[in-house]
Design goal:
Oligomer: single chain
CATH architecture of the largest domain: Alpha-Beta Barrel
Mean pLDDT: 95
CATH superfamily of the largest domain: Metal-dependent hydrolases
Shape: elongated
């Protein structure tokens, strides 16, 4: 199931075959289409389409090109236009204020008017507790300045959607057709915004050079990405040059999946959950203890952990690739085995969730034994504290039951290790290192990972893993 989070279906390009366009989208698995307005007239038309088609939802707003329509002859914001827009936002199928923002490429509206109208529309969104859909072109500095000011002033904006311990701020909007680099992506994510990726991500790359959009699509976790066509524009490959339409969303998802080493189903699930969280469309996923990513089955056998990593959302929403891992109880060995069914259907069975699997080492061994006896491959994702947790060296007990072990190293500085994982680094860092060395000594396939932080020296960390431990090294995104 996919969502086209940005489609201008009221444009004249669709006036002769809109029914067919929507039907093709549904046939391709597009569950919902969000249609943002660009002025009062198109906002009303977006609402009409939302009333006409079950799958369509509307956003209302004034695009920066049309900001001048909300200005008086004296150059001030027209309060009547803003009041009309706010009234439109009360329609039950309006899910956002948008498309709004700044565009300094064309300057179809004076820049000062653009900024004032943009800010006023964010104020409407705050009053209505709605997210915003942001357009920015050659105007990122001013857009971020205005958005950040409203975030500072509007502490309650969408706060009802954030659980107390969530790692991220409440979902406040999306930067559509995201124009920035990875650094900017991190900045807007920390403000409570998603980034939306359109068709150009599918365009063939120039030799030896990736576009910033491709780099963002590769390095930003799928949890923060929405899919969009921006139709009728920005048609993805191989239909470039023709009219774009929502049915092409899977082409965009497929390219992002390729860049991230995931399946198209993973991207669909993660981005659809993002739409549910941001716009309130669709159903919240039920908690699971077995969940598929790529062609592997992951087992979330506990949400207990001896650490409390600053980059972990275990105490928050606990969502991974659209899977809800906030289980209310730990599954029994029998329940897990029943859920696996046939381990040969998967590339591997992975003990990994929002908890430390070795806390349940006996269950882990029992399940692993059954998987191996039935032709499966087992991997353990761990913080490497299992021997310390269980008061004895557990590695020999894993031999023959576990094929591969992934250990969260994160940093080779014990003090920084303690800060990142919020534990006693002087105690747990050497225990983790000893666990890793034991795994290598006993012939297990060991990979040690670090979180991609500027404060962590990747070269030194890699050298430590490969030379001191004799394991493989992997860098994973921080967000």
């Amino acid at each position: 199931m996919f969502v086209d989070s940005h489609a201008h279906l009221y444009f004249k390009d669709f006036q002769h075959d809109l029914e067919d366009v929507v039907k093709r989208a549904v046939d391709r698995g597009i569950a919902y289409i969000i249609c943002p307005g660009t002025d009062l007239e198109t906002s009303r038309r977006a609402i009409e389409l939302a009333e006409r088609f079950e799958q369509v939802y509307a956003a209302v707003g004034l695009h920066p090109h049309d900001a001048k329509k909300a200005a008086t002859n004296g150059g001030e914001v027209d309060r009547d236009v803003m009041a009309a827009l706010e009234e439109l936002s009360r329609h039950p199928k309006v899910v956002a204020i948008g498309e709004i923002g700044l565009d300094y490429h064309y300057d179809f509206s004076p820049r000062e008017i653009q900024r004032e109208v943009f800010s006023e529309q964010i104020s409407i969104a705050r009053r209505r507790d709605l997210p915003i859909i942001v357009h920015t072109r050659e105007s990122e500095k001013d857009v971020l300045e205005i958005v950040e000011r409203h975030v500072r002033q509007g502490k309650d904006w969408r706060a009802r959607l954030r659980q107390k311990a969530d790692r991220y701020p409440p979902p406040r909007g999306v930067f559509h057709c995201f124009p920035g680099d990875v650094e900017m992506a991190w900045r807007v994510i920390n403000l409570g915004f998603y980034i939306s990726i359109p068709g150009p991500v599918t365009f063939p790359a120039k030799p030896g050079k990736n576009s910033p959009m491709v780099e963002v699509a590769q390095k930003v976790s799928a949890e923060h990405i929405l899919l969009e066509t921006d139709c009728p524009y920005l048609t993805p490959h191989p239909h470039r040059g023709k009219r774009n339409e929502p049915a092409y969303v899977p082409l965009i998802a497929s390219r992002i999946a390729e860049l991230q080493g995931l399946s198209i189903e993973d991207i669909a699930r993660a981005s659809t959950f993002g739409v549910t969280k941001l716009f309130g469309i669709g159903e919240y996923p039920r908690p699971v203890f077995a969940y598929k990513i790529r062609d592997s089955l992951y087992l979330n056998i506990t949400i207990r952990c001896n650490a409390d990593c600053v980059f972990c959302d275990r105490k928050g929403e606990a969502i991974v690739r659209g899977h809800n891992l906030r289980i209310e109880r730990e599954p029994s060995v029998e329940e897990v085995i029943k859920e696996i069914d046939d381990p040969k259907r998967y590339d591997e069975i992975v003990f990994c969730g929002f908890g430390e699997p070795t806390i349940r080492v006996d269950a882990l061994k029992h399940i692993s034994k059954w998987v191996k006896e039935n032709g499966g491959v087992v991997r353990l994702n761990t913080d490497g504290h299992g021997s310390l947790i269980n008061y004895h060296n557990i590695v020999p007990e894993l031999v023959g039951l576990v094929d591969a072990v992934s250990i969260s190293l994160n940093t080779i500085d014990p003090d920084q290790y303690g800060r990142l994982m919020q534990i006693d680094g002087g105690k747990f860092f050497p225990a983790m290192v000893e666990f890793a060395k034991e795994c290598v000594k006993h012939g297990l396939d060991v990979t040690m990972t670090m979180v991609d932080l500027q404060s962590v020296n990747e070269a030194k960390t890699r050298a430590f893993v490969e030379n001191e431990i004799g394991a493989k090294f992997k860098n994973r995104p921080y967000f």
